[in-house]
Amino acid sequence: MSVIRSKILGVGSYLPEKVMTNDDLSKMVETSDEWIVERTGIKIRHLAADEEVTSDLAVKAAQDALENAGITVQELDAILVATTTPDHTFPATATKVQARLGMTHGFAFDLQAVCSGFMYAMTMADSLIRAGQVKTILVIGAETLSRLVDWTDRNTCVLFGDGAGAVVLTAVQGQGTAADTGILKAKVFSDGTFGELLHTTGGPSSSQTIGTIFMNGKEVFRHAVGKLADAAEDVLSEAGVSSEELTWLVPHQANLRIIDSTAKKLGLPASKVVVTVDHHANTSAASIPLALAEKVKSGEIKRGDLLLFDAMGGGFTWGAMLVRF
Ligand code: UT7
Description:
Peroxisomal Thiolase, Chain A, domain 1, 10 helices
């Protein structure tokens, strides 16, 4: 049976120049390199310069992805930016990126699902492609989470970083089997009853400020391990694929312990798990495309590899996606 699939044509990324180490943080709050590495696996994070905003990061990742895909902006039908840290409340960061790329056709919009933002954006982009609405779409995860961090709260300030990652998706014909190239199965979930466990203390309609991040780390951790494995198993079973067939798990990079626990539940050896959290911390919607771009460019992820993405974040939102690269 002939079906439309969304193929990843190219990948791109951008990390701001400024680096903050765990030792730098230990001068600001009562923490240590030892605690942060042991509990999270994070060693450094990148921070946007004072004048740098989310769209600046997004544009750099987008240009990198377009170059990697070997296409021009003229060939794009749409741009989707997953972000929780837009430049402004409106217009959408995606329309700013569209303008900066010199694109005046098609459409661009933002999507907000916090750390699952990239999973949601990819799922929506795949739906647009399969429905025939667009042929080629640029999906970006871009964040300046550092702007939402309370730098006096050691429970959260050690965890986050800034960055952007992007992929170009394009329609290809498939046979409707797991041997196809492109997105094979995507599932996203949310449960708003857990909203209080991970939220910002403000917003345009409530406090008229952006607020800062509050997180009940222990509870988020507990839910993350269960929900990520459940979503991954769901996607694998619906696609008729076993975890042994996976070439790589490319998980949301929040905490090495969460990544390890999920891999263990799926029966995956560490050699099949992409870990980049050590050098960019939790960049929310940017973390999966950042990790993907790094491993594609290093040659570790190759054409034909079977990849599983998973993510979980505020909302709660979570999801998993099976992709043949
Ligand atoms: O992207 C999705 C959203 N986020 C996540 O996925 C994060 C999920 N949660 C986590 O990653 C972990 O829960 C944390 C890394 C945030 C915390 O690790 P934990 O092992 O759950 O530590 P904890 O919260 O139970 O805290 C243990 C101790 C506490 O001290 P007491 O009460 O035992 O005396 C904390 O006050 O560690 C203390 N602590 C710190 N100590 C040094 C908390 N943060 C720090 C810190 N440095 N930065």
